[in-house]
Structure formats: C-alpha cells, structure tokens
Design a protein that fits this description.
Strand order of the largest sheet: 3-2-1-4-5-6
Distance between the termini: 27 Å
Structural class: alpha/beta
Shape: globular
Length: 286
C-alpha cells in the first residue's frame, strides 16, 4: 500500500501548542519552549500513527503582508500575537528541518496555500495526502485521495473526507470557498452576504452550484464584487511555490541534537529514544 504524503499547517498547530502547554517550559537562552515541545509531540504522534512517505510543513510569513491582505486590508485584522509565540514561530522551521521534513514558506503566502499546492502535487503523482490543520478552510481540499486531519480534543484528530464535509455544511468540498464568501468568516474578518447564514448559503449553493451562478441569477447584485473577492480570499492557492518533496524517513537524531542545544532535555530524550528504535528496526548497515 502506498504511503501518504503528510501536509501540516505549522502555524495552526504551533498556536494550539503555545496555548496548551505551560509557559514555564524554557529554552537555554530564556526564550519560551512550550510551542516547540507541543509541536514536536504532534510531529512525532502523526508520524507514528500515519507512517507517511514524507512530511511537508507550511508556514505563514508574519513579517510580510500576504496577497490577501493587499487585496483586502481588513483580512485577519486585529490579531495580536504574544512575542514569545512569534519567537518560537521564527525558530520552529529549524526544528522541522532538523527532523528531515520539508519546509514551505514564502512572502505573500499563507500556510494554507502550501497545503493546497502540496495536495495538487500529490494528486498529479496519483498519490494520497493527509492534511493536518485546525482551520476548517482546509475542508475544501477533501477528496477521494485527500483526508483532512482536524483536531477535536486532547490530541484526537477527526478524519474529514467529502462525506463529512457534506454532513457538516451540506455543501461539496469544492464549494467551501463559495460557502465562506456567502456565510462570512469572522475569524478572517470576511463579512459575507448581508442576511445570509450557513443554512441559506448551503441552500443557495445547492440550487445554483457556485457563487458566480448565485449572482448571475440576480442575487446580491450590489455586493457582487465584494463576494467574489471574499471567495478569492477563501480559496487556497494551489500555485504556491513548493520545494521538492522526496520520500524521507525522520532524522530524529538531528532533531535531538537541536533540542539538546535549546536545553529542552525531556524532548531531546524522547527524540533520542525514537532514533535508537529506528536504528534497531533498520538493522545493521553493510
């Protein structure tokens, strides 16, 4: 059986780890370590459970505006990140690279875009993908070959495919950007169509198929340009630039060395144990 490509929204899970773990976890330089430890535990758990052929982690670029913010300045406005979280987000890609995993990050793009690009790349090679994200926008990627891993509680992940998207929202995965444009998304500061909630948005898409067809039928004429923009903002960009993705086993020993350097000793010990177990399974080299 072909192993899947695992694609992870780095920022989504780093944020969750930062807020879940004690702030008393510190690195050697005094900086925070909770987001790093929590994110590392996620990487380990996902690898052990899913056994992917390779792992790609997508990241936002926080010090440069995205094309979405340039198109719609209120997009994701008002978010205020703790300096300790920003500090850990800056160095977490180094840890991911030490694990032997692929990093996708570029000015102007969000982590979401790299998820879409990686899924499209894997589809072209007739493979399967697992997309780990806490953002429901990722449900638009669900298909026969792509399953979304969505956190629900205490490390548990719901597996979301096309059927689960239909059950939750009464729309097809590919209609999620249309659905968001009509319903709105407060977390991203997208207002949506006036007077439209999730039920009416789903009903309109069931009747007309797409936002453009909803508008062509004479609905929301005064908001047409705004709604089309919201759909563009809600659509993950599958043309985002990707690094080469090759089959790769984790390099837990390198990750352990970096954890030791940061004086995250419990994490380093766990990574050393993983490296030792992997070496035993691999057997003696020629």
């Amino acid at each position: 059986m072909t192993r899947p490509l695992l694609v992870i929204d780095g920022d989504s899970f780093a944020h969750r780890a930062f807020h879940a773990l004690p702030k008393s976890i510190r690195r050697q330089d005094g900086g925070g370590g909770g987001a790093i430890v929590g994110f590392a535990n996620l990487l380990i758990r996902l690898f052990e459970v899913e056994q992917p052929r390779a792992v790609l982690v997508g990241w936002d670029t926080l010090d440069a505006p995205t094309y979405r913010q340039q198109l719609f300045p209120p997009y994701q406005g008002g978010r205020d990140f703790d300096p300790e979280l920003i500090d850990q987000l800056t160095i977490l890609p180094d840890f991911v690279a030490a694990c032997g995993y692929v990093i996708a990050k570029a000015p102007g793009y969000e982590a979401d875009d790299f998820l879409a690009a990686a899924v499209a790349s894997e589809r072209r090679r007739h493979g399967t993908a697992l997309v780990a994200s806490g953002d429901r926008d990722a449900f638009q990627l669900a298909s026969a070959s792509t399953t979304i891993l969505h956190p629900v509680k205490a490390g548990e992940m719901a597996r979301i495919g096309p059927n689960e998207v239909r059950e939750r929202y009464a729309v097809e995965p590919g209609q999620i950007p249309d659905f968001i444009a009509l319903r709105g998304d407060p977390s991203d500061k997208l207002p949506g169509a006036r007077g439209v909630g999730p039920k009416r948005a789903a009903a309109l898409l069931h009747q007309f198929g797409t936002l453009e067809q909803v508008i062509a039928a004479g609905n929301f004429i005064e908001q047409a340009d705004e709604l089309k923009l919201y759909k563009k903002l809600a659509t993950m960009d599958a043309t985002a630039p990707l690094p080469v993705i090759r089959d790769e086993s984790p390099r837990w020993d390198q990750a352990a060395s970096l954890a030791h350097e940061w004086k995250l000793n419990r994490l380093a010990l766990r990574l050393e144990q993983l490296a030792a177990s992997a070496s035993i399974r691999a057997g003696p080299s020629d």
